[in-house]
Amino acid sequence: MQQPQTRIQRKNHALILEAALDVFAREGFRGATVDQIAKTAGMSKPNVLYYFPTKEAMHEALLTQLLETWLDPLVAMDAGGDPVEEVLAYVRRKLEMARQHPRESRLFAGEILRGAPHMLGALKGDLRTLVDDKAAVIDGWIAAGKLAPVSAHHLMFSVWALTQHYADFDVQVQAVLGGPDWAGAEAHLSDLFTRMITPASNS
Amino acid sequence: MQQPQTRIQRKNHALILEAALDVFAREGFRGATVDQIAKTAGMSKPNVLYYFPTKEAMHEALLTQLLETWLDPLVAMDAGGDPVEEVLAYVRRKLEMARQHPRESRLFAGEILRGAPHMLGALKGDLRTLVDDKAAVIDGWIAAGKLAPVSAHHLMFSVWALTQHYADFDVQVQAVLGGPDWAGAEAHLSDLFTRMITPASNS
DNA sequence: TGTTGCTTTGACCATTTGGTCAAAACCAAG
DNA sequence: CTTGGTTTTGACCAAATGGTCAAAGCAACA
User: Fold this and answer.
1) Among A114, B60, B84, B172, which has the highest number of CB atoms less than 10 A from its own CB?
2) Any chain B CB within 8 A of the CB of A130?
3) What is the pLDDT of residues A110-126, one digit of tens each?
4) What is the DSSP track for A108-134?
5) Residue A9 Cβ < 7 Å to strand D
6) Average pLDDT, stretch B158-176?
7) For residues A55 and A38, is the Cβ–Cβ distance under 8 A?
8) Is the pLDDT of residue B1 over 80?
9) How many angstroms separate the Cα of A52 from the Cα of each of A43, A66, A74, B12?
10) What angle do CA B10, B15, B18 make, to 5 degrees?
11) Counting runs of H as helices and runs of E as strands, what totals does chain A give?
């Protein structure tokens, strides 16, 4: 599996994936049509199928490409940094990613919601490995008294749930608040995680 | 719009909605087919369409019915009770609901993810009203010093995000942990919200 | 300019799917 | 057992949709 060679191939490849992301995020895999993707990409349906053999191939290409980016904020959590600051920085990076890439967040959410038919392997493999790795780091911080005792795995679930919620459930948030409130979200999450993980002061 | 009259109508109505919930939760609205619903309900497609004029009608019936149940845990939060206990009890009720009714949670998530085409009115109406109402209660508790100062709205978003995550992203949770861990989830969330909302002790 | 290989698309096909319809099966009351 | 309404379904239809194909367009190089 090689990357596209010619300049025009690279361009159209990217163009199609961009369009597919748009449509998949909005309509879901089943709801998206190749025609919609083609129209969004500004080309004919057969031409889209010339670059990607099937609709599923586009979906998989997006998910594969996405997973890496998606995990970056967690990868960047540094075992050598200040524990509380590292976790808070992770939360902020993740929230920023949700704000900047809501389509990716929804694409991911839709895939998981449907039982992760195209990602189960990656979840049980790369994701699990990374998470276990970082959980060990967190457990180390806790053992050293640098972090309040929490379940490292559930802490990470909390970060995912809380940050992605603002992208995936954006419609609901806006319906309730009357509009977006990313600043409020960041303040709230910073506050929440600070209280959550700051170890009790040595009495 | 009346409820079904005869005994057989009531039975089949319920049977179809049960089947539709199953299929919609698993496949999403676009992915679900009337045939699947019919087969799950143990009857023919035309018979399903005899009770519900369209696929959309089933979806709407489910969502309408769901919204009420869904908000119950929040409705039950009592302004007269102990603030910290009330919030924690709300979290536990919501988590329990996610555990007992994952299909409903996924149905709801799918609807919101797609922009809430069938629920936007309810979100901006009933939901917003209820949330604003309860936010006022929470703000009252905070003003009285019974609760740590938090954004009431974002606090509720946090409850939703964290509890529903365990139902909606169940596949991911299980892929990472190797299996379900509702007990761990409850302990974690109890801990998290306790630290979040317990007011600083009077020094 | 002519040739070669890459790119693009109109037309087409098979399948799926939401929904219809008329006839059959069923049920309850007289 | 008959009759009138309700329930059920096999057969069917039209539209949507994923995907194919052969032919046309186009770029680049000899």
Assistant:
1) B172
2) no
3) 999 999 999 999 999 99
4) HHHHHHTT-TTTHHHIIIIIHHHHHHH
5) no
6) 98
7) no
8) no
9) 13, 17, 31, 44
10) 125
11) 11, 0
Is A114's Cβ below 8 Å from some Cβ in B?
yes
pLDDT surpassing 50 at residue A1: no
Round to a whole number and report the distance in Å from the CA of A7 to the C1' of C4: 19
Q: Which residue of B has its CA nearest to A119?
A: B172
**Strand residue runs (E) in chain B:** none
Four-residue CA torsion sign, A91, A138, B186, A200: negative
Label residues B13-51 b or e (16+ Cβ within 10 Å = b).
eebbbebbbbbbbbbbbbbbebebbbebbebeeeebbeb
Instruction: Name the packing angle between helices A152-168 and B170-177 (round to 10°).
Output: 160
Is the C-beta atom of A46 closer than 7 angstroms to strand D? yes
Residue in the block written with tokens 């806006």: A174
Residue B69 pLDDT grade (very low, low, confident, very high; cuts 50, 70, 90)? very high
pLDDT, tens digit (0-9, with 9 covering 90-100), for A60-80: 999 999 999 999 999 999 999
Best residue in A29, A30, A95, A113 for a mutation probing chain B (most B CBs within 10 Å):
A113
Answer for B6: CB within 7 Å of strand D.
yes
Q: How far apart are CA B58 and CA B195, in angstroms?
A: 42
Q: Give Cα A122 distance to the centre of its chain.
A: 14
Q: For residue B42, give both structure tokens.
A: 């143990």
Q: Which residue is nearest to nucleotide D20 (CA to C1')?
A: A46
DSSP B127: I
Structure tokens belonging to residue B60: 């709407």
Instruction: Round to whole Å and give the CA distance between A190 and A168.
Output: 20
- Å between A152 CA and C12 C1'? 57
What is the rounded distance in angstroms from the CA atom of residue A104 to the CA atom of residue A100?
9
pLDDT greater than 60 at residue B2? no
